[in-house]
Amino acid sequence: MTTGCMLYSRAMRHAALSVRMMLLFLAFFFEAPFLFAQQNPIQEFRLPKSALPLSYKLDLTIRPEEATFAGRVLIDIELKEQVQLIWLNAKDLTIQEIHVRLGGIPKTASWRTSGEFLAIEVGEPMGPGAVQLEIRYIAPLDHKTDKTDVGAYHKKSANDWYVYTSFFAIDARRAVPCFDEPEYKTPWTIVLHVKRDDVAVSNAPAISTEEEPEGMKRVEFAPTQPLPSEMIAFAVGPFDVVDAGVAGQKRIPVRIITPRNRASEAGSASRATAELLPLLEQYTGIPYPWDKLDHLAVLEMHGAEENPGLITYRAEELLAATSADTPLHERAMRRTMTHEMAHQWFGNLVTQSWWDDVWLSEGFATWLQNKISDAQLPAFERGLQITWLRDFLLLTATVDKRPVRVSVHNRKENDAVYDLIVYWKGACILQMLEDWIGAEGLQRALHRYLSDHAFKAATSQDLVNAIAQETRIDTGPVLFGLLDRTGAPTLHFSVEGSGGAENLIVKQSAKAWTLPVCIHVQGVKPHCELVSASRTELALSGQPRWIWPNAYGSGYYRSALTGALFDRLMKAGYAELDGPERLALTGDLESLTNSGDLPAAITMKFLPQIAKDVDPWMRERAVATALELSLLANGDMRPKYRDWLQKTMHVPPVSPTQTKSFQEFFQDKRSHQDTTDP
Ligand SMILES: [Zn+2]
């Protein structure tokens, strides 16, 4: 805990603290939770709802080679109720001055910082009504070597220094005192004072540039649309700026911004936006929400960040010298770009109200990234990526070890929010929803969700409401079950019936999941039924020759059919399943065999057939599954399994040279010791 407070030095000097002030003093120093419990957000890691930020005016002086920068922020606030303290987020900032205006009247302010928070008071109750804060401060420019810079940070390349930002998810507070929570979306007006030779960019277009003394200039950017603090971004340095034309319905200007002398590496990147942005506009039915789009190549960065109007990428991902500009590189770059541009609607236009719903950003961006990429593939290759994700998650229990939605009470928990599960399971759930309620219905519902909450924040329940309004389907029990519970169920399918009519029996554990089960039988369009009990009976029409109870391959469950049902499916139905269905079937065979729900002999009976599939990825999948299952073959089964692999999958036998190499490896004790042993 640091101090920086005029009030307390004055109070100590005059030894005239009131009882109330003494308690406040103690509360800050000892963080006694019983004091000011109603107003102290430290315990909950969440700001009180009493203050609502309305707008920010941010004025920063940045010389990239220096270790710090100077800032001044004006924040207009509406107090909803009377308070003694106004709480903001601030971390590692040196606060120099704070001025408070209550209803336009200036007041003497005092403040204290504590960990992630800044508390301001004026010695009398404040509000309800308008308050304006003016805060002058010094902030550090982070400088790490392991690509984990946060807040505003600087990087050196050759003799050039650059400043970038990474405010996502709770690090805007390292660069500006603010209400650093996603639901607080306000316009931001940003002014940067930088060296005349440097380029300055931010979320909005620059509207004026004026020269200043000492070789500096003042660059003012247009006010942004309402944005959360985590999506504010700026960059300063001797950048090259590549004009990439215009894109989208509003024909917004697009640029690629690179470190000095690397403009020639922006070829692929500069072509992509005009092609990809209209696809997202078309799907959402909403024009790109901002006034410009810069793609900024950042030195030494992990991944990419979707800041509105100023998306940042690892330089190696966005740029490629001519020799490295391969189709593979371009495809990966376009996938990342599509993901980040999808966020302009899902995450930026509509932001999750709190981090427990971060899947509303990441799940959607991952799902849409695949949807847009799929649309550019031949029909028979579509839907495979999401099915791979589904299969991987159902096979790898270690990944699906926490719910998609988790609560957040501190920085450590917040860091853990952005787990792979949020991206992948979120995307899988959306694919299942689409196949269940229909592509057209979901698209309509998403348009409504985006329109109803545009420039505001939303929750998973808002999504459920939008779907219900457009389709009359209540997806809540399915959605929240999958979001709030780890893992996935195994559904056991069998048939009962006589006289030519069969019923499909679905059994699951006593703590039943609510899920749509979509049934594919010969010659009939798949239809979905909601299953929510540990035993459900579904009427089939007649006695189908085969049944695959995971039509589209997107059901987030494993399908354990009886041996007889698997026989019918593989004999008569396999060739009629589409690519994602065959992939999901093979994934389930592997997963069920590994978990012991299916005898290995059943899977081994079918793998040779799958290994002869017309599609190469299915043949590869069959071999990979067969190799994976070899781990289950113990003792004298192992040589037999190897012979079987050789005969059915054409997996070559281990050569004598390799056998010798294995022997040498295991004879040499050092080579297979755990090197982490002391
Ligand atoms: Zn993302």
Q: Strand portion, in percent?
A: 25-35%
**Which strand order do you get reading across the main beta sheet?**
5-4-8-2-1-11-14-13
CATH topology of the largest domain: Immunoglobulin-like
CATH superfamily of the largest domain: tricorn interacting facor f3 domain
Please compute the radius of gyration using only Cα atoms. Answer: 29 Å
Number of domains: 4
CATH class of the largest domain: Mainly Beta
- Unreliable stretches covering 5 or more consecutive residues: 1-38
Give a short account of the largest sheet: 8 strands, mixed
Fraction of residues in helix? 25-40%
Structural class: alpha+beta
Distance between the termini: 38 Å
The small-molecule ligands in this entry are:
zinc ion
Please tally the helical runs, counting DSSP H or I stretches of 4 or more residues. Answer: 18
Query: How many strands appear in the DSSP assignment?
Result: 29
* Shape verdict: globular
Question: Could you list some keywords that capture this structure?
Answer:
alpha+beta, 33% helix, eight-stranded mixed β-sheet, 29 strands, globular, five-stranded mixed β-sheet, 18 helices, Zincin-like, Immunoglobulin-like, binds zinc ion, 26% strand
Please describe what this structure looks like:
The structure is a single chain. With 678 residues, this protein is an alpha+beta fold. It has 4 domains: 220 residues, Immunoglobulin-like, CATH 2.60.40; 84 residues, Zincin-like, CATH 3.30.2010; 135 residues, Neutral Protease Domain 2 (Neutral Protease, domain 2), CATH 1.10.390; 165 residues, Immunoglobulin-like (Sandwich). Helix content is 33%, strand content 26%. The protein contains 18 helices and 29 strands. A hairpin with a 4-residue loop joins strand 16 and strand 17. Helix 14 runs antiparallel to helix 15 and helix 15 packs antiparallel against helix 16. The N terminus is likely disordered. The structure holds zinc ion. Zinc ion binds next to helix 6.
